[in-house]
């Protein structure tokens, strides 16, 4: 697949290894400022060194999963230290989240499939 | 946090290392049988050796992320080979998915936070 970047909602299939931050959260019913902050954090993350992409969704039940992809653990640590990101996390704990889990994982293989192609991506990496 | 298992929607924070299968997909508008099959696959996965847990959500835009957790790569390969799982994947490509990406990643650190606790989990693992 050469058009992976164009698949709506999906991050490109970079060549492993790289890193994923899996952030799973359940929201409170407090909405004030949440949408704007979420958008701002996606934009700010995309400006960081080592950022590769993001996939994010939230269901009607308030459960959300955001997976961001990074070139290295160092890039993830640097993003974690960004002051505006810290402030957002503080506000998240104060207002927006009931609970969350965060996992840092090393991506070792990836593949994809698109209806436009009709066949599974042969590059099982 | 001693009640991690009880947090709705979140898989327990197992001791790393273990493995995550990150399945990101965009659905078609075809609904026939999808919900039942999705529930069946969650139940069937939970019966497999090496299964640890699952987190899954889908937004109103049709983008879904399911992360399942496994003890080993061998457990993931065995689950992939289960005949009923294969059949579900075939039907997914025929009917339910516009495109998807699947990544296999080794979880190296994890932590969590719950409003019930009020402080970030000190066990940064």
Secondary structure: elements and pairs:
2 copies of one chain form a homodimer.
Chain A lengths: L17 E10 L6 H13 L4 E8 L4 E8 L2 H9 L1 H14 E18 L11
Antiparallel strand pairs in A: 1-3, 1-4, 2-3
Helix pairs in contact in A: 1-3
Task: Tell me what the structure shows.
Two copies of one chain form a homodimer. Chain A is α+β, with helices and mostly antiparallel strands and 125 residues long. Chain A has a single domain (14-111), classed as Alpha-Beta Plaits (2-Layer Sandwich), CATH 3.30.70. The first copy, chain A, is built from three helices and four strands. Chain A has helices at residues 34-46, 73-81, 83-96, and strands spanning 18-27, 51-58, 63-70, 97-114. The first copy, chain A, has a four-stranded antiparallel sheet with strand order 2-3-1-4. The longest helix of chain A is centred in the last third of the chain and has 14 residues, at 83-96. Chain A is globular. The two termini of chain A are 13 Å apart. The mean pLDDT of chain A is 89. At the A-B interface, strand 1, strand 2, strand 3 and strand 4 of A face strand 1, strand 2, strand 3 and strand 4 of B. Strand 4 of chain A pairs antiparallel with strand 4 of chain B, so a sheet runs across the interface.
């Amino acid at each position: 697949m050469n058009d992976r970047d164009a698949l709506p909602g999906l991050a490109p299939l970079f060549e492993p290894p790289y890193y994923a931050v899996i952030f799973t959260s359940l929201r409170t019913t407090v909405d004030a400022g949440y949408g704007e902050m979420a958008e701002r954090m996606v934009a700010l993350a995309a400006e960081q060194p080592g950022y590769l992409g993001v996939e994010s969704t939230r269901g009607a039940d308030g459960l959300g999963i955001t997976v961001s992809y990074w070139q290295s653990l160092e890039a993830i640590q640097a993003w974690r230290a960004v002051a505006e990101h810290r402030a957002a996390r503080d506000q998240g704990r104060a207002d927006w989240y009931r609970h969350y889990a965060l996992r840092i994982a090393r991506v070792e293989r990836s593949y994809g499939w698109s209806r436009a192609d009709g066949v599974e991506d042969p590059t099982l990496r």
